[in-house]
Amino acid sequence: MQSFDHDAAPPPPRAILETGPQQHLDALCRTASELFGTPLALVPLIDEDRFWFRGRCGVEDDGADRESAFCSHTIRRARGQALVVPDLTRDARFAHSPLVVGPPQARFYAGVAIGSISGRTIGTFCVIDRVPRPDFSDSQVRALQELALLAEAHLQLHERRDAAEAEARERVRAEARLVEREAALRVTQAAHAMAERTACFGHWRVDVESRTITWSDGVARIFGRNAALSTLPLDTHIGFYHPDDRARVYRAIEEALAGRGTAEGGGYDHRSRVIRPDGEERVVTVHAIAQHDDSGRLVAIYGVCLDVTDLARSERQQREAGEVLRTTLEAMGQGLMMIDPDGRIRVHNQRARTILSLPDDVLHEGARYADLLRFQAKSGEFRNAPPEVRDWLLGNSPRPPISRYERTRPNGVVVEVRIAPTQSGGTVCTYTDVTERRQGEAALRAAEADYQSLFQNAVIGVYRARLDGVIVQANRALVRLHGYDHGRGLLVPETTFGHDWYVDPERHAAFLDLLHRDGRVEDFVSEVRRHAGGDSIWVSETAWLVPGADGAPAGYEGTVADATERKRAEALIEHIARHDALTGLPNRRLFHETLGRALAGARRWGGRVAVLCCDLDRFKAVNDTFGHPAGDALLRVVAERLGAALREGDMVARLGGDEFAIILTDQDETRRIAAVARRIIQSLGRPVDLDGLSAAIGVSIGIAVGPEDGDSPETLFKNADIALYRAKDSGRNAFRFYERGMDAAVATRNLLELDLRDALRTGGFALHYQPIFALADGTPSGFEALLRWNHPVRGPVSPAEFIPVAEESGLIAPMGAWALNEACREAASWPGEMRVAVNVSAVQFRKQGLEQAVIRALAASGLPARRLELEITESVLMQDSEAVIGCLHRLRALGVRIALDDFGTGYSSLSYLCRFPFDKIKVDRSFVRDLDNPVAAAIVGAIVGIGERLGSTITAEGVETEEQLGRLREKGCTEVQGFLLSRPMAAEDARRFMRGRTSVAA
After folding, report:
1. DSSP assigned state of 29
2. What value, to the nearest 5°, has the Cα angle with vertex 664 and ends 660 and 670?
3. Which of 132, 148, 454, 754 maximizes the CB count within 10 A of its CB?
4. Which residues are bridge partners to 416 per DSSP?
5. What is the C-alpha to C-alpha distance for residues 514 and 506, in angstroms, rounded to an integer?
């Protein structure tokens, strides 16, 4: 007889526990109760934690806990051996048992172990009495054993019958599983084909010898070209990238072609932009690896191009990326061995041989893994392994409970070893040189695992349905999409799991109509309701008809992807595309769309539409004075006040910068439109508190009313903009309605700007030079360079006319740079220390690059910096005084002289004199002209006094009479210039003038 340990006794077959011969066993129990005179007789069968009463007499319970049952001791005995306890209260093992101290108050127990066909102990046959039975004889024990044999025979007979029935059922199930697996295979194949058609990525192959590239369909779709998939020259392919990225992409490809690829696998990675034929810019991530032939020669580069701007198809990108990573894993240098349950090596790769330095006679297919370990042990391979691992590898201890470890080989290479059991009982070992490849190996193994479970663990739902929409097969992802937490492989629901789950009841009919009409449905986006929970989500569906044996549609298959985030992203993008980020107001795009609809409604139903173009006055001064955060806060206040001044149904939009536009609908009376404009001017005229700082602005408004001022959005807005220019010209903080003829002035100004650009491009400007004379000896000390423009049609154009246009259009920066270069070049040819003065606009200071322009002009001409003088006005200092004064100090440190022009005409001249030591102060011509006025004369005298104390040269400009010259000499001016002494002259005339050394001393 075989004995069994209590903890090791396995439970009987589930069929015996659930459907054993209970009637026969109950009869045996009744027989035993009568034969032995005991109130209780049982046939308990063991489970993991209970005894189940498959036969019983005298009890109603169906079982008892295994720990408290008397039978726990019986089953430790051999089959057929009895355990008899005459008085349970006198046995220390049972005296405190719940069955003794509580119901049924047992005092006597006798039981015999019974077994199954395999010989395993599966339970007992026992009798229990409520009184002690010291008289229970040996013959009664033998009778109890015989009854136990009868119970065992009944159980074994039932076990054999169940085994035969189970075998028959298993054959039926095996056939069903075969059919099911064939269907699953077809679903998987269809899912793979669907993934290739719908993924948002592409791959390519570069042939090294011919320097050509072959695209996949995905690359052609991403690049929006080469639909025929023609083989392209590599330079043509690179030319499709953004100009700013081409050089970087070219370098990466050339390095890889030369065998110097920086990425793993000899390839490269980059993230760049491509330009499609329609001008659309797409961002792609490219990963490339090198392919070598058997001789190691580089023959091709394979690459993957992933469109990372397309949020709608991210699931397919991830799936395709996983496939690429799986392919990359095959090219990575990870060693691998697969050992079968018999301990023989069935699979290995060359990388394992290289990493472990194993000869062919040690590592080969069919070699014993134990022999390999002995070879490594002799070579000292395990000397630096963890102690518990080393003992196991040397055969001194069982395998420790680990799945990975690291060891340092005798040659110093650190190897990471991973051990994984297979379902068949074998083992897979991988070996990685962690000094270079740990991260790549881990990522690629994860990608391989993802690929292997593509269908079961797909991130999108896959299903099969009947033509009436009832789903007959679905994967876990679809089950989770329906709101259930857990899915079990392929789900075949019995009821209430159908395709008709749309929030809009008409969507299901639309889906089926498309499916039957076209045979498939692509990216069918709908709002649906989950089966579990009832909440709604957005999904994107792709489906296709599946023909039956007769060729007619028998059902359909499809995929379902959660598109909720996509819809949210589209809604957010749509909002961002049509609204201003700072104020939340509609932007220019939404403004024009709304205006188009309003005009269309006016044409259809009658009525008028008014457009108000609003431009803030003095906003730039606030922005420059208090900083950009304050400017942003001011714009938000303006947006709120504009909205409060309008009616419901009207629109206010921010077009950019400090430009706003308003649409007023159903405005039949001009006076009401004017009232709105006055209300806006009044509202924005109120001071704005910016964290304790008070800012005051105004607004100029141009108004055009459709359809009389324009029946298209473009025309109406253009005319309102023209009216805005007229409002600004009239003094600002005002409004003007569009009138015919206003656009002529704007057209003239725009034409002048175009002519300016052409003159700048073709060299249409010239510099004239007006000499500046020293009053001490009457000799010229330098020249002021003055910009002149001789228009090819209009003739000479006054600087007072074209300079403001140049400043507004931004042309003043390149124009000023040209003037600096030309003036320095010309002055470099002058004799002695003759200086040249160049005027600098406030706009040039606002733009970056003035200092660099000065340095370049001096370097190119060779003119010493002390001979260059820059003339600025107070308006330059007012825009951002700290930054400007810092720039002036840096220029002066170079040796450049700084002159303050038009002194006395501003509001804060004296404060600037205290903050910067100007080399020269120029008295404005208005004071020179009015020297007969005592006040003007006193101001000139004061300026001269200030200049003497500051050590600055005082230059009076605009001297036109001998009397003015004499008065200025009396006041103590240092230098003078004006028509009396010399008019501005061309460069050649100026050189001739210097040769004559004209003097005004007499």
Report:
1. H
2. 110
3. 148
4. 406, 432
5. 13
